[in-house]
Amino acid sequence: MSSELEKNLQFLCAEKPSVAQVCREIGINHQQFSKYLSGRSRPSAHNLRRISRYFGLPDTVLCGSHEALLKIYLKKTRSLTERRRDPLATAFPGDLAALRPHLGAYQVHFTSTAAPGSIFVNAVFLDEVEGTVRSRLIEVLPEAPGRPRRWTRCDGKVGYQNGRIFVIDNETTDNGSLTMTILVPPHRQNKRYLFGKTLFLASVPLRAPTSSDVVWKKVEAYQSVREIISSCGAFERNSRKLDPLVRGQLASE
User: Fold this and answer.
1) Is residue 208 predicted with pLDDT exceeding 80?
2) Which CATH number do you get for residue 13?
3) CA nearest neighbour of 250 among 145, 128, 119
4) Which of 5, 28, 120, 190 has its CA 20 to 30 Å from the CA of residue 229?
């Protein structure tokens, strides 16, 4: 008799172009995965978690009754159909499997006409939420005469299309503006860095549109969001606090 996990996996894979593609996108051995499909073997806890995350389902649902999985799957399908009424629904997230390796926390480095000679550092966090990837950017505004250090928050969406990462975010204030960023995924020897261009409104003069080269540097390990934010702000271009690779990339800006 087929197990519930076996039936659930067979059903979910039937919705994909091929089992081989599923294995590639999960990063799991095809021969081993075939044993799960046939019921000859059960995945380890680690592999079960990878498979369930790929299909966007909790482990308990993937291993639970087939009827329960069908109900949840049909509900998600209806939700996806509704999202597709949005002309950008397929662009965000686009290729979700290709985008997932880039989830996490980053320092965002760029220049601005508001402060020539400086490099600004913000923090951004990319998280998967119900099949989409959301961005949460913390913009740190440095101290100025009569003004203490403060920060603003921008929320947005992230998409992956044709080998590029697209980010559109918006300040969480009534008069907030949109920022658009296009990033190139890293070379295998520089996995911590994303390079690209960002288009935004400068705070002065007259909130004019401006653009800048941008470098996202991944933060591999941190204790808290506060720790990352504490490293943000405005720095002199030759500051030793900045990564030499970042300084070199933004030197001509």
Assistant:
1) no
2) 1.10.260.40
3) 119
4) 190
Q: Are residues 108 and 208 in the same domain?
A: yes
Q: Is the pTM of this model over 0.70?
A: no
Distance of alpha carbon 122 from alpha carbon 151, whole angstroms: 9
* Sequential DSSP letters for 161-229: ETTEEEEEEEESSTT--EEEEEEEPPPTT-TTEEEEEEEEE-SSSTT-EEEEEEEEEEE---S-HHHHH
Q: pLDDT digits over 146-188, tens only?
A: 555 567 889 999 999 999 999 999 887 656 678 999 999 877 6
If asked whether residues 212 and 123 sit together in one domain, one would say yes
State the residue range of the domain holding 206: 99-249
What distances in angstroms separate CA 109 from CA 7, 59, 131, 228, one per listed residue? 48, 38, 28, 13
Q: Any long-range contacts for 122-126 (C-beta under 8 Å, 24+ apart)?
A: 122/232, 123/225, 123/228, 123/229, 123/231, 123/232, 124/216, 125/225, 126/102, 126/158
Residues 6+ apart with CB under 8 A from 12: 55, 73
pLDDT band (50, 70, 90) for residue 91: confident
Pair 116, 228 in one domain: yes
Would you say 253 and 111 are in contact if contact means Cβ atoms under 8 Å apart? Answer: yes
Residues 53 and 119 in one domain: no
| Residue 198 counted as domain residue | yes
Total domains in the fold of the chain: 2
Tell me: the pLDDT tens digits for 33-77? 999 999 999 999 999 999 998 888 888 999 999 999 988 887 776
